[in-house]
From TrEMBL:
SUPFAM superfamilies in the cross-refs: P-loop containing nucleoside triphosphate hydrolases (SSF52540)
Domain ABC transporter span(s) in chain numbering: 22-247
InterPro entries: AAA+_ATPase, ABC_transporter-like_ATP-bd, ABC_transporter-like_CS, ABC_transporter_ATP-binding, P-loop_NTPase
Source species of the chain: Dictyobacter arantiisoli
GO terms under cellular component: plasma membrane
Chief location: membrane
Keywords linked to the UniProt accession: ATP-binding, Cell membrane, Membrane, Nucleotide-binding, Translocase, Transport
One GO molecular-function entry: ATP hydrolysis activity
Protein name, per record: ABC transporter ATP-binding protein
Length: 322
């Protein structure tokens, strides 16, 4: 099937399910001779949290900014809430919220003034004070933006994205630079938004964030879609096939790999071992017998599945990108 036929089929399938909130069909974008998004297709259903993951420079921000109407596609078609983000921007903008990566837009205004300013752009904004409270900025509401900490700036950017009661929110690395408390609060806000039916497209470099929050995860690399599924399906969460254990370093991994049903045995860090098998109960018996026979003291033993981070690194490699 050609890429075009495939995209047309995907778009037709998406439309049959009801109106998707976002439909990206065969979208490509070049900067000069450099193709940064390469025939990307996906759709986001109403009320879904959709995570876009990829190494630095993979094309995430370019994609998100095109969905927001700030960049024009070179090829393909984009529909957001059924609208063309550029030609129908006036209809679209009041219905979406955007959390930008750069936070320093109004250094001389206080947090409350920034929110009041943005509230003025919408017909039915949220209460500024309630939103400041929700994102934990009440005490800092009179602080000028340039004096806010990095995490506080991110929380203000989140509040700006939510002030207009949007149907769809774009969150670009929403918890980057936040401390664990602020991160938990932000995750709770995202879950509340989802419960109230808001659709969320998020980009993140935090795999646990994507795993906890999203209904669908798309991984892109070099502008191409390389994986798209639920976090459970991507990590095989329904099918635990990994045993991790901690014991003295230097155990013989060749012998461990030779235990019945073991597909892989590795000492991933000194004294930290990972075995992969589809027959976990049998493996546990054989492994503990093997350890007992060698008088090996076990300090931890866990059964689980691979993480999104494992999959991400396997698909995109471990080389650092520019
Ligand atoms: N305006 C521009 N002009 C030229 N090249 C650009 C422009 N914007 C982005 N790029 C390049 O396009 C590629 C994709 O960038 P993009 O910001 O979309 O990636 P990203 O996946 O969001 O990365 P990160 O995780 O680092 O934010 C990069 O190589 C980047 O340098």
């Amino acid at each position: 099937m050609s890429a075009h036929t495939q995209t047309t089929t995907q778009m037709a399938q998406a439309l049959q399910k009801g109106s998707p909130t976002i439909v990206v069909g065969n979208f490509s974008k070049n900067y000069g001779a450099h193709r940064v998004v390469d025939h990307l297709s996906f759709s986001v259903q109403p009320g879904e949290v959709f995570a876009l993951l990829g190494p630095n420079g993979a094309g995430k921000t370019t994609t998100v900014e095109t969905l927001e109407g700030y960049r024009a596609p070179d090829e393909g078609s984009i529909r957001v809430l059924g609208l063309d983000p550029i030609r129908q921007a006036q209809q679209l903008k009041p219905r979406i919220g955007v959390m930008l990566q750069q936070d320093g837009l109004y250094p001389a205004l206080t947090a409350r003034e920034v929110l009041r300013l943005f509230a003025g752009y919408y017909a039915h904004p949220q209460s500024v004070d309630a939103l400041l409270e929700r994102v934990g900025l009440t005490a800092a509401s009179k602080t000028r933006c340039r004096r806010l900490s990095g995490g506080q700036k991110r929380r203000l950017a989140l509040a700006v994205a939510l002030i207009g009661n949007p149907e769809l929110v774009f969150l670009d690395e929403p918890t980057a630079g936040m401390d664990p408390q602020a991160r938990q609060t932000t995750w709770e806000i995202i879950r509340e938004l989802k419960r109230s039916g808001v659709t969320i497209l998020l980009t993140t470099h935090l795999m646990d964030e994507a795993e906890r929050l999203s209904d669908q995860v798309a991984i892109i690399d070099h502008g191409q879609l390389i994986a798209l599924d639920t976090p459970e399906n991507l990590t095989g969460a329904k099918n635990a096939n990994i045993v991790r254990f901690v014991a003295p370093e230097g155990l013989d991994c060749q012998q461990l790999a030779a235990l019945p049903g073991v597909k892989k045995a590795e000492e991933v860090r000194a004294g930290s071992y990972v075995l992969e098998s589809d027959t976990i109960p049998t493996l546990l018996v054989d492994l503990t017998t093997w350890l007992r026979d060698r008088n090996v003291t076990l300090s931890e033993l866990r059964v689980g599945h691979g993480s999104l981070e494992d999959l991400f690194l396997r698909l995109t490699g471990s080389e650092v990108r520019d």
